[in-house]
Amino acid sequence: MFETEPDRIPSSFELLGWLQEPFSQPIEIPKMIYEIYIRPNLSLQDSNKFFRSSDEFSFRVMSDIIAIINPPTTGNTEDSFHSFWDALIIKPINIACPNGKYNRNSSSNTSTKKLRPDFSYTLDGACLARGEEKGPNTDNDPAEELTSKLIWTYGSCPYIFGYYARGFDVTYCYLYNEDNQVYRKDLITCNLKTLIGRMNAFVIGRNIGRLLPLIRKGLGDSFHKEFYIIHRPNSQKIIELMQNVVVKRYTSKADFPAKLEKIYRMMDDRQVPYVDHIVQMNKGDNEKLPNIIFSPKGLIHRPSSMKQLVIALYCVLSALKVLHEIGYIHQDIRWENVLKYIDRNAWFIIDFEDASEYPAPGIRHLDRSNHSPEIFKDFHDTSVDMWSIGYLIMTAHVKLPINETLRKYAMELMKENAPISAEIALGFLWQNYKEILRLEGFFRVTNR
User: Which residues form the Protein kinase domain (predicted)?
Assistant: First the structure.
């Protein structure tokens, strides 16, 4: 009854009317509930529009709407309203769009809390509905936070949904991008203290939920996930993908990789290209768990054409050339750690937790199937990273003929202790594929 998907996305001009469209038929509810709760609190017109007294009601439907009739109790604090907002604002969206996931921003860390809305509703990794909430006596403007926390990553999508609540009042709106600026357009305010306000909110939330799958289809499969959490139990950390940054949270201070601060500072000082950067580091002071915020956020995207592969190799080798010059090796180069920029046709390296000065001691925890055999031995050097360049070539989504020059070069790179530096490999790339690189706006890297 509540999940019917529309056949089109309404324009912003007709959106308010569309969101207020009632159900195709009134909801059947028990006669006693109708007489005690509905008829005394709604006009005859509204009660007939939304409900019908009947002995043939659905228990499932009744469980969906029971909070409208008997809402959760509240107090005076923001926390005391959470179950109230969940039942009356969020549940209707979820009923109509059951495949979505909703989360509350529970972070107590100021640096990461401001990266998330108070409420986010994601469908296939895309946050298409968000909310900001305040208690009746809480400071700050929830409406302003809707736009200040939003970075538009939805391309030509006409709008996404938002709401802001203060106590019993909730205002529904849509958010849109115009000239690279995010704007908010308020649609309607519902007073959830009243039955008609709760009923209107249910109808609006249900219609928002019905529309989300259609909006998600318009974004395509290549949309980069946001507000997505990756658990890495073996490494004792949790990775959270925000809209344009990545937050790594460590389960204890003992697991915090303190050496990263030095490595990233050195890379920043030497302007190592095509690597991510530390935006903020919290070492676990004030009894909070440590976390690091990295930028930019990228896409796991193995090259699927020769042009993409050449560009990705150029980017990685450009980074390794400078990294090796300052005495460091990455040691874990693979496509999971070589990401594509969201906004341009280039790749960058992430995850320097295994990076080390060289010659380096052997590393025991890495996977032997995708790392150089030399990396497990003591006193290895830059050759392990160059082996990984060959591995990148062989594991890209590009079919290379046996006699292809790049394939042959990969085999040379993967030989034991191959005497090929990143600078030499860049020269090879430029010599054989300079037309591709020039057309894409890249230039030959020279010594600094």
Answer: 168-448
With beta carbons less than 8 A apart as the criterion, state whether 256 and 290 touch: yes
Residue 271 near residue 364 (C-beta atoms within 8 A): no
Pseudo-torsion of CA 55, 60, 63, 64, nearest 10°? -110
Burial environment of residue 188 by CB neighbours within 10 A (0 to 12, 13 to 18, 19 or more): middle
Strands 291-295 and 277-282: antiparallel
Q: Which of 18, 230, 205 is nearest to 119 (CA)?
A: 205
Helix 383-395 vs helix 405-413: angle between axes, to the nearest 10 degrees?
140
Task: Give the separation between CA 173 and CA 189, rounded to whole angstroms.
Answer: 9
The amino acid occupying position 440 is E
Measure the CA–CA gap between 353 and 255, rounded to whole angstroms: 11
Write out the DSSP string of 179-206. TTEEEEEEEEEEETTSHHHHHHHHHHHH
Distances (CA, A) of 439 to 135, 298, 305: 55, 23, 15
Which residue ranges of the chain lie beneath pLDDT 50? Answer: 110
Is the preceding omega at residue 296 within 30 degrees of 0, hence cis?
A: yes
Are 228 and 125 in contact by the 8 Å Cβ rule? The answer is: yes
- Cα 3 from Cα 23, distance rounded (Å): 11
Helix H or strand E segment including 111: helix 110-113
For 53, 91, 370, the CA distances from 38, given in Å and listed in that order, are 10, 20, 66
CB 76 within 8 A of CB 137: yes
**pLDDT score, position 289:** 80
Q: How far is CA 212 from the centre of its chain?
A: 17
Q: Looking at this protein, which amino acid is placed at residue 72?
A: P
Task: Give the pLDDT confidence of 34-87 residue by residue, as tens digits.
Answer: 888 888 888 888 888 888 888 877 788 888 888 888 999 999 889 999 999 999
> Hey, CA dihedral for 411, 414, 416, 420, is it positive or negative?
positive
With residue 132 as reference, give the H or E element that holds it.
strand 126-134
Q: What is the dihedral of CA 366, 368, 374, 379, to 10 degrees?
A: 20
Task: Tell me which DSSP letter residue 51 carries.
Answer: E
Residues 6+ apart with CB under 8 A from 212: 93, 97, 100, 121, 123, 128, 129, 161
Report CA dihedral (196, 201, 206, 212) to the nearest 10 degrees.
Answer: 160
Cβ 130 vs Cβ 104: under 8 Å: no
Pick from 44, 46, 50, 43: which is nearest to 28 by CA? 50
383-395 helix and 306-325 helix, angle to the nearest 10 degrees: 170
